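Supplementary Methods S3. Input chains for the assembly prediction are listed below.
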Amino acid sequence: MKRIYVNEEYCIGCRLCEIHCAVQHSQSKKIIKAFKEEAPRAMARILVEEEGPLSFAMQCRHCEEAPCIEACIVGAMYRDEDTGAVLCDEDRCVGCWMCVMVCPFGAIQRNVAGSKAASKCDLCYGEEIPACVAHCPNEALTFVEVGSMAGEGR
Amino acid sequence: MRYVIIGNSAAAIGCVEGIRHHDPDSPITIVADEPHHTYSRPLISYLLGGLVDENRMGYRPPDFYEKNRVETLLGVQVTEIDPQGRSISLAGGGELSYDRLLISTGGKPFVPPIPGANLPGVFTFVTWEEARQIGHFIEDRQAKSALVIGAGLIGLKTIEALLARGMKVTVVELADRVLSRIFDPTASRMADIILRREGVDVRTANTVTEIIGRGGHLDHAVLRDGERIDCDLVIFAIGVRPNTGLVPADSGIRVERGIRVDEHMRTTAPDVYAAGDCVEAYDRLTDEYHQIAIWPLAYRQGYIAGCNMAGYDREYEGGFPMNSISVCDVPTISVGIIDPPDDGDRYEIMDDYDRESLTYKKLVLRGHRLVGAMFINDIDRAGIYTGLIREQVDISQFKEHLLSGSFGLISLPKDYRKHLVMGSGIEV
Ligand SMILES: Cc1cc2nc3c(=O)[nH]c(=O)nc-3n(C[C@H](O)[C@H](O)[C@H](O)COP(=O)(O)OP(=O)(O)OC[C@H]3O[C@@H](n4cnc5c(N)ncnc54)[C@H](O)[C@@H]3O)c2cc1C
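Predicted structure tokens for the full assembly:
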């Protein structure tokens, strides 16, 4: 199973990950169309935080025992059997925001303008490499097998 | 090994998933008196309000039992538990024996003994069936006005559903403010403003002493102060008490207000576990045992019970109250201790209230730890605070950033952040 790892030392705060994440989750998957024509504009499911020289990008960590799955009152938040990713069935989500309340990473957003559902990283389901990783110019985001990172806490 | 689970809701499903994580094969039987496939209890207010239809009530996919190899006895009531004989009795005769038992019978709605409480048109509101009955009643009787008794979590959800159906709603609350158990006075005042803005007639510090019918219909309710409230429908939403009726007094299972469980979710009888709204479990912020009737903890306790039932040692880390509810479309979140007792300088409050935009943020600190957080309107990234509360992180290094608009993971000490991000889960 592969996961996205975040290396804040390498992040330059360019926010290309946010842009390409939004494009990937737009209807057209075309950058100009996604930003110019689609309304509401697709949301990025990754968030860059920045303060002075420090910046990093963060999306869902796909926790092993995910508080969002435990807290979801309708069972819309679930674990994908094949990839182990934590996914949200947006058709079933009723927007109660229990997941927003419990995610320790603040990685779940409310898509108030669009689906009215919880919006989160889906590891670009079906893609070889998630869009944020593919477009990170400095390898601050990497997509690697779980357990292969040095110093990994498990 | 034969597992039996009484109940078919959050705690029961958590238990199944906990057991199956460690024991893929041994038989599991779920017995529940409600006839439905496992469903989302909190959705009954959405159903009544017409916001979801009956097809969307399911909590797990239709093939859940099959996939997890669970046998079900649905629509079957358990009348008694016999821990000595390791069996449970079923209504209509019959027994079921177990090696490990989970009691997850949830809560029972409380109805005070007042005259008229049994009249047709007076309801409680905790099951799918009740949501249907109330819906039919409103349609058949062309009911236009409703009286909701209790302005807590369930009361608020009930009010929202009734408003969505275009009804005129009055709410009566015994405490001197709405949502008194999960909001602080400022947040309650804001909720009050929002409710009144939507046309709800809010009566606090008051109670219903009698419900009067006339000619087969409800006519009015009488309040403690003598006032009459005309209504076609009354819904009791005072809250739920642990549902422990099937535990005999001499069973060896200790029952206080709820079934008492230890850190493994074990009751005081061998091989009998309990989880969810029927238990008194550990509250890690107050260091007490009591019922916290919320979905996430019911699931968590069930999951931990399931792991232990399957022989895998897991401790319940303790819970604390947390609620995310909308008050007439205004999102709110309250976590932990948000209205601390006046206890000298033990607690410290940081808050930010904007009257214009009706936004409110409040944090409660005990020493260098966060123990409570409350948000109205601006709830984004609230989970970061919940995480700090859960892990009891020392906040002294970044305290001054806690209320800033840009507060995020970036405000946390690098070590902690790295650990959080690199670790597999959320444990520190
Ligand atoms: C209208 C409403 C809205 C809510 N909204 C929220 C919310 O937004 N967020 C939140 O966190 N919580 C919410 N809650 C609370 C939440 O639903 C409960 O905390 C949760 O359902 C508890 O789950 P449980 O598994 O302990 O038991 P329950 O859901 O109460 O289920 C009990 C189970 O036991 C079975 N049972 C009981 N007695 C017997 C018996 N004698 N024999 C056989 N079977 C039996 C029942 O059939 C049922 O399957 C809401 C509750 C209500 C009523």
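Chain A is about 20% helix and 20% strand. Residues A 73, 96; B 6-12, 31-34, 41-42, 44-45, 77-78, 104-107, 125-126, 154, 157, 243, 246, 276-277, 293-296, 298, 325 surround flavin-adenine dinucleotide (CB under 6 Å).
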